[in-house]
Amino acid sequence: MKKYIKHSILGLTLALSLTACLKDLDQEPIDPDSFTEKDVFRNATEARSALAKIYASLSLTGQKGPAGDGDIAGADEGSTGFTRVQFYLQEASTDEALIRWSDAGVPDFHNMSWTPSNTFTNAYYNRLGQQIAFANSFIDNAQALATDEEVKYYIAEARFIRAYAYYNVIDAFGNAPLVTSSKADLKPAQNTRAELFSFVETELKELETVLKSARTNEYGRVDQVAAQALLARLYLNAEQYIGVKKYTECVTYAKKVIASSYSLHTTDKNSNGTAYDDLFLADNDTNGAQNEFIFVASFDGLNTKTYGGPAFIMHGGTGGKMNASELGINGGWGGITTTKEFVNKFEVSARNGNNEPTAWKDKRAMFHTDGQTFESTDYVKDFTKGGYAITKFRNVTSAGVVGKDPGKDFPDTDLPLIRLAEVYLTYAEAVLRGGQGGDKPTALGYINQLRARAYGNASGNIAESDLTLDFILDERARELYWEGLRRTDLVRYKKFTTADYLWSVKGGAASGVAVPDYRNLYPIPSDALTANENLRQNTGY
Q1: Cα–Cα separations (whole angstroms), residue 305 to 86, 280, 290, 312, 328
Q2: Residues 125-136: pLDDT tens digits?
Q3: Is the pTM of this model over 0.90?
């Protein structure tokens, strides 16, 4: 019989499964009917298998995959996995993605009309809480083995994933309970955004000293550079989060990451003129892209079956005249396209008779145009009228071999959560915002490294006079689209809710419209408010 344990997570008590599995840690799942909690933590080998469950919470939703034995009782596994709901909140609410499905809650994102009962904002809150709960349970129970040197690293990694989850809480929801023990009160008090920020900052600064050194851990597990990179991201957004500028701290930590042994992937493995697309192929754990990946959500077509992650992105973004087999999948769901405003950020090399772009000098522009309208004219009724499609992620290796799943349902492609290119852009922006310890010529060099990779040569390089904050925002879009960062970037630039930047269907209007600033944060779920009277709703909801 399946066993659940109740945890108070961000103020909402959920029933969570405690079994474990994850392909990259190469461990057998812990069967709750065969193992007791004492057994799980009787030695370092079993503790490692339990650690796998925490990493798995970034990719999976349950024990069987893709559905049927979920980690969170009552949740629909197919639509509520972490990376899938993060895409809804971070991408579908922006100019980078337009989702045409009419399922309850989905149109709320491009309409910017979400409420405290939205299924997907609630799922994101709960998935973050799940990650925190699994980490807390592991940290508490692993103390019995804390004299083991390897287990010390396991505990540090669990603390990092908890800090990453709390970073996302800060970013999306603002205030929430700070829960650091599996034995916490079921109705914890609500902490402020500043208190959560301080916790994450303190944790990451300590983890910098206790995680394994750069690139000495196995692929898929974090090291000290992950803590440094997340600190740089936290500091870049500090002015928005807590009203305090921390751009000098941002520069400091970005420099540490850049000076580490991680490196930009620049070797074109499939001979198409750019190494950029290697980052999003089925063998991105071995084709050289792994040297750039600092933190990933790992996927495997045989062992991590889920309708979130790359399966959602690839199948969801395929329709119309697109050839699914070229993407290494068996078909499309005809759901996700992009806006003309996003497409227009890339330098064009060819246009059709309607003056619409059809080819680009910048090879990061991975668009399918055949049969697609440039304008998002009638996206709800017809995928082909929803704008250009995106083909950035593919379930094909650098050698052109389709991923492992013979049915082509579930891709092997890993999703980068933090990669070195982001830190190059972070350094440049922090310098332009006044951060000390860096300089504009160095920032320019980092940006031109990204652009040289994108163009295949130096033809796309810019001059120092071109390096402005607005340029950096657009360059972040070009480099990092569909990687879960766009909403955060637009909020930081004060362009998410305002009329300073409008895109197709923003706020539910064809040409875009501003919405109230309170929508820079998502609402605390109504279920959480009902379960815990200590919580207070965010302003405007």
Answers
A1: 18, 18, 21, 11, 15
A2: 999 999 999 999
A3: yes
